[in-house]
Structures are given as C-alpha cells and as structure tokens.
Amino acid sequence: MSTVIKEHPAETPLFMYLPFQNVHGPTEAPQRFHDMYAHLAGSQPQYRLNIMACLSALDEGVGNVTSALKNAGLWDNTVIVFQSDNGGDTGANGQGMNNWPLRGTKWTHWEGGVNVVAFISGPLVPIAARGTHYNGMLHSTDWRVTFAGLAQIDPDNTGPFPLDGHDVWQAVTTNGPSPRNEVVHQVLKSPIVNQSCHPDNMILKSGHVTHCGASIRVGQWKLMLGYPGWLDLAFPLPTSTTPNVTEPRLDPTDPAVCNSLKCSEGCLFNLETDRQETNNLYSTQPQVVQQLTARLSELAKQSLPARNPPPYVVPTTPADVADRQAPLKRRATGSLGKTLGLRSRCESVTGFSHRHRRIKSDFG
User: Fold this and answer.
1) Phi, psi at residue 263, to the nearest 5°?
2) Are 115 and 107 a contacting pair, CB within 8 Å?
3) Structure confidence by residue, pLDDT tens digits, 13-47
4) Which of 157, 169, 184, 260 has its C-alpha lying 20 to 30 A from 195's C-alpha?
5) CA neighbor of 136 nearest in space, from 170, 85, 176
6) 346, 24 in Cβ contact below 8 A?
C-alpha cells in the first residue's frame, strides 16, 4: 500500500480499500506485539492477550498508511473511515472478542452481530466534530455515496436498482439527523423455515448458520423472524477468572434449547430503550409487527438469488461438519499462505448488513 500511495499523482483523486485481517482468526502476531502485554499475564486469559497483540499489529499497519499519505503529500486532503464488518466472535473459541453490552455475536442477527463501531479521521473532518460521537443510523452502503459526494463526482446510480446508500457526511460532521431510517439485515422468501433447528443439524455446533431467518430495523424497531443465530447471550468483559463464556456451552441441536434461542413466533425490540434485546414486544405491538413483516415481504420479492452460500444441505454427522470446515482450514494453512507469510484467511461477505452503533470523529 505504501508503494501505491507513493506512486500516485497528488493531483488525482484516490480511493483505497484496505481490509485488515489482523483481528480475524487465527489470532497470531509477531512476538514483539505479544511482549507489549507480558505484564498482563495472569490477569487476562491468554486468548484475550492474543487478540490484544493482533490489535497492536493492526494499529501499526494503520500508522504506516497514514505516514505514507503524509510523506506523499496526500494527507491534507484525505478522509479515513475505519469500520468493522461485523460483531466480534465471542469467547475463547471466538478469539477472545467481546460485544458487551450487546447481545449476540458474529454469525447472528442480534445487535452484537450487526451493530458495529467505526471512526472517521483526517484533516477534512471539521474541528468542531473531532472527538465527538455520532449515534445516528448508518449502513456500510452509505460510504460509497458519501465518498462520491466528498470527491464531487457522480456516485453512478445507473444500475438496474437505485443505490441503497445515502450521503451521511453532513449528518455525521454536524451531529444532525441521519438520512437513513432503515437497515435490512436479511430477507428470506416466505415461508421462513427454521431448518437450522432440526435436531440432526450438526453444523450448528460450529455456529455458522446465518441464512435461516429474516431481520430488519426501521426507526427504533427491530423485527427478527426465524432463527436469529447463536450465541445469543451478552457476555461481560472477561478477567482471568471470568472468561467470556462462563456457563456450559448449550447444545443448539437439542430442540428444547433451540426453541429457546430462536424467535419461534417472532421477536420485536425497541432498540432506543432496549439495546440488549431483552424485552420481546412481538405480542404487544401487532401493528408494528405487521408493518415490518410487510416490508420484509416486499423486499423479498425484489431480492436476487444469493450466490453464496450454495443451496443448504443439512449435515447429519460430525464427519459431515468436519468435511465442510476442511476447506476453511486449508485456506488458512495452505502452501500459498505460508509462502506469502499470511497470518489469517480471507473472509467472504456473509450477506449481513451492519448499522454502526457509534461513530467517533477523531484527528491524528
């Protein structure tokens, strides 16, 4: 990236997308980053120390990019947006990440899976906005339109469907109302089948079933139908004696457990008053449920067939699960990865959408 920046003409606009994989499993970092946290040994579980080291390596990488921009004379006209793609994968098996106080984890429709943080930095951020927080509703598709507006170019709305994004620069930098009032997490054509709760569905033991439920947020209301994903709990920040997952891991292939995890009849939450999604208002707000269900049905009629994942097949044995997970392990440890010195496998887009819980405008 430093070479790209160094060789780029300063008078020509530049868009650069840099997806860091440092905090994605496997959590490995050079020893010098682990040494930074040696004093915490014994006070934090090892998997948390690992993720801290990975995060410090990522921080150094971001610093390298900003230094290259400054050396190339591009920094004074640059905006940097840094955002997560999804909530953290919690617990020791999830690389030690944490979404507290939100419920849920990566692979789920709970807020812990879809509600993420981001920050904006650079000299173009107005002085009055630096160091402030923005809590309005945003979506990852908003950045394309926002960047086009900053560059004073047409965002190219010539496709078969209108762009989903909004220009949010004015809202974020002035703490104004967001132009967005809706985020679609997932749509499914009716009927929404909770096939992931089949007692023979061993793939659930890996937690990687994401396409068996529908979810949408409009204003303060969030509706989930079908299977919202597991783990569905909110874990406090860990200590050496209180790791992320303190209770026995539930078996979601057990129908009784599965029925407690999914939104069998539906889940409706008011996120303005219930960020942790603990008070299901599905039965007490029938008009809201009807409106949001109708919106999901409308969107389902417009949706295109998904290219990924392929048609769902229920694996029935642990061997089937191992066979489906083997390609992921090969990609992480294959000869190409070793040759290039890659530390983590690339992650495909899951199809989830993400609303930013908080935007921090910073400088430096």
Assistant:
1) -95, 80
2) no
3) 888 999 988 888 788 899 999 999 999 998 888 88
4) 184
5) 176
6) no
What is the rounded distance in angstroms from the CA atom of residue 244 to the CA atom of residue 235?
6
Residues with Cβ within 8 Å of 163's Cβ and at least 6 positions away in sequence, in order, are: 141, 144, 145, 155, 157
Can you tell me which residue has the tokens 């599905």? 282
Q: CB under 8 Å to 267, separation ≥6 — which residues?
A: 223, 224, 225, 228, 277, 280, 282
Q: Are 195 and 252 in contact (CB under 8 A)?
A: no
Torsions phi, psi of 272, nearest 5?
Answer: -70, -30
- At residue 89, the pLDDT reads 79
Determine the Cα angle at 139 with ends 269 and 182, to 5°. 45
Q: Name 156's Cβ contacts closer than 8 Å, sequence gap at least 6.
A: 148
Cβ atoms within 10 A of the Cβ of 211, count? 18
Whether pLDDT at 195 is above 60? no
Q: Angle at Cα 312 formed by Cα 245 and Cα 295, nearest 5°?
A: 85
CA-to-CA distance for 29 and 18, rounded, in angstroms? 19
Here the tokens at position 40 are 């915490």
The CA distances from residue 63 to 68, 126, 169, 183, 294, in Å, are 9, 21, 24, 32, 47
Alpha-carbon torsion (175, 140, 22, 364), positive or negative: negative
Answer whether residue 190 shows pLDDT above 70: no
| Phi, psi (deg, nearest 5) at residue 174 | -120, 5
Model pTM score = 0.76
CB 215 within 8 A of CB 223: yes
Give the pairing type, strands 355-362 and 115-121. Answer: parallel
- Strand ranges inside the chain, DSSP E: 80-83, 115-121, 133-134, 182-186, 213-218, 221-226, 263-270, 355-362
Could you give the CA distance from residue 155 to residue 122 in angstroms, rounded to a whole number?
22
Q: What is the pLDDT of residue 133?
A: 94
Strand order in the sheet with 182-186: 182-186, 213-218, 221-226, 263-270
pLDDT tens string 95-137: 667 788 888 888 788 899 999 989 999 999 999 999 999 999 9
